[in-house]
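Checked the freezer inventory, then went back to the computational side. Two predictions to log before the end of the day. The first one is the construct we discussed on Monday; recording sequence and tokens without edits.
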Amino acid sequence: MSDAQSKLQRLEDAGILDQKQFSAEEMALVATITDDEIDVLVRLRQKLGAPSADKNHIRPNFVV
């Protein structure tokens, strides 16, 4: 698994994004996020809880 795939997988595992909904360009942009930034996003998701099931189309599905 590449570093970019690892970052995307961490975000997906945390419930922040669904890779299937992203274009190749969007995935490349997400891959530029630093590990520290991913940690912050994961902690934010944990604090806010899971997104509403009817809003899966909204990315990154929490207030930024």
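The second is the one RB wanted added to the comparison set:
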Amino acid sequence: MSSMSVGEIGYYKGVHRVKVLTESEGYWIVEALEEFDDDVDGERVTVKVGEQRIVPSESVHRRKFLAPPVKEHAYELKMEKKLKRLVADEEKQDAEE
């Protein structure tokens, strides 16, 4: 986030408190102010207090917030609707008999 400055406290991924140490093109070097779990190349890693990480600048925010919920894949939603419709039709047929 370009409005953040070096030495400022921010929130990594909108949740975890970090201090911005330095900035480079598109990335920040931040220091963790609290312990948290992070994903690195698909692996879960525990980040300890005081540990430094290189993170994309857009992942550090001024205020704490929760990320929006992840939307399900359109195919999964379509199949879920189809399954519900089939179950409802089956129940309707059983009720008529």
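For RB: Strands lie at 9-12, 16-24, 27-32, 36-40, 43-47, 52-56, 60-61. The longest helix spans residues 74-96. Let me know if you want it refolded.
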